[in-house]
Amino acid sequence: MSIYCAQDLNQFMLAFNSPRKICCVEHLKTLTEFQTPGKANLINSTLDANRRTARLCQLSSRDRPSLKGLEALFMSKNIPIFSAKDQYPQIASELEAAVLEVLRSGSYIMGQKGKSLEQEIASICGAKHGIGVANGTDALILALWALDIGPGDEVITTPFTFAATIEAIMMRGAKPVFVDVDEKTFNIDVAAIEKVITPKTKAIIPVHLYGQSADMDPIMALADRYALKVIEDNAQAISATYKGKPTGSFGDAACISFYPTKNLGACGDAGMIVCNDDKLAERLRCLRAHGSKQRYFHEELGVNSRLDEIQAAVLLTKMAYLADWTTKRRAIAQKYFELLKNVPGIVLPNPGVKEDYAHVWHQYTVRVLSDNLAGASGNSTNGATTSMRQRVIDGLAKRNIGSMCYYPVPLHMQEAFAHYGYKKGEFPITERLADEVLSLPMFPELTDEDIQAVGQALTAIMNEQFATPVAVPTPTVSL
Ligand SMILES: Cc1ncc(COP(=O)(O)O)c(C=O)c1O
Fold first, then answer.
1. CATH number of the domain at 321-465, out of 3.90.1150.10, 3.50.50.60, 3.10.310.10, 1.10.287.1080?
2. CB-based burial label for 357 (10 Å; 0-12, 13-18, 19+)
C-alpha cells in the first residue's frame, strides 16, 4: 500500500495501532511517498523509515502519536543515539582508498596493516605489545587463557557491565564473583573487592564503563597484595586516562573492542589485547592462531581469532581522527551538563573532568530517578505502571530522539548466569542503576542544534512529570 493522502495516512494509523507491527513496518516504508494536495512533501527527503519505525515500535501503546503528532514526528529531525552513517562521509575517500589498497594487495589476514595497528593501539594504551583478535569478547577469553585462568578459579568483576565480561570468565570454566559498583562512577566499588577474595581468586577484571577509568590505584595495590592478575576491560574507554596514564596501561593485560559503535569502531568486528610482558604477548599470538607459532606446527590448543587486514585498514584510517573525536565527545558532554543541570528527577553522570579521570564519553548516561525517589506527581494518566524512565524513553522517541539503557538487567539476575545462585537484592546499587540509567545521543557528529534539541526535550519531559517541579538532590561529586 502506498500512502498519498490523509485518508491513507489514517489507514496507516489503524495498522500502526494494530498488534501486527510487522505490517506497520511496510506501511512506514511507504510513508516516504506521503503527499497532501497543496502541501509540499511532508516527509523529509533524508527520512530513514526503518529507524523511525524502530523508534515508534518502542513506544507503549498509550504513547503512540496522534495523526498530528505523527506528522510532526515525520517532519522533525531524527537524532539517533549513535550514527555510524554520519561519521562515514567525513572520511569516505580515505576509508575507501585504504580498503581498496587491501583488496588490491591480496594480503587479507596477518599482514602489514594488522601489525601497524597493533603497534599504534599498544602505543596509545601505553603498552609494549598489541595482539589483534577477532573481537573484544575473544580478547577477554584469550587474555584469561594466556594468564592460565581456568576451571576452579574465581575472577572478580561487577554485574553492571556488558555480558561479554562474564561470558569470557565462564568460557574459561572459571567462576565470576561479583562486587557492586560505585554509585557515582558506575565502576567497580574498590572498597568491596577485598571481602570477596578467597584462595581461589586468580584475577580482577575492572571494566572502564561508559568511557571512564575504574579507580586503578587501589585495584593494583590489592592485586599486588594478593598476587592476583588484573585484566582491564577497556572495551569502552580507549584513550581515557587515570592519573595521567592511559587505560590499558595498568593491568597484566587489557582488552579492547572495535565494535562499530565504539569510540574507535571498525566496519565489522575486531578487538585487541595489549600487554607489556613479552612471554604473555607471544602466547597470545600463538593462541589466537590455532596454538601455532609456525604454520602447521601446533604447540598447544588454540583458536582462530584474528583481526583481518580490511578492519585494520579501517581502524588505522580512523585512528588519525580519534583525538579530535574524543575532544568533540567531551564538548558534547559539557553542553549536556550545562543544559541538564537543573532538570528535576535527573542525576547527571560523574563529570570526570579532574585530571585523575579523563573521561572519553563513550556514553553520556544520566539517571532518571524512580518515581518514589523523585517525588514526581503529574505523570501517569493511565496508572503508574510505566516507569519514569520508560516515560522518558517514550517522550524522547515521540520527538524522534534515540536513547538506550546500558544495561537494563544486571548480570547476576540474568537467566544465563542464574546457576551461580546470586539473588535479587545482593547488589543494590547495580540493581538501582539498571532501573535508572539512560544513555543519550552521543557521537562526535552531533550538532549544537541536536544537543540543544535533546536538552530541551528531556527538560520538557521531566517538567511534565512534576506537577510542581521539585528540587531533587544531586549526589555530590567527590572525584
Ligand atoms: C564492556 C564490554 N566488554 C566487552 C565487550 C565485547 O566486545 P565485542 O563486542 O567486540 O566482542 C563489549 C562490547 O560491547 C563491552 O562493552
1. 3.90.1150.10
2. buried
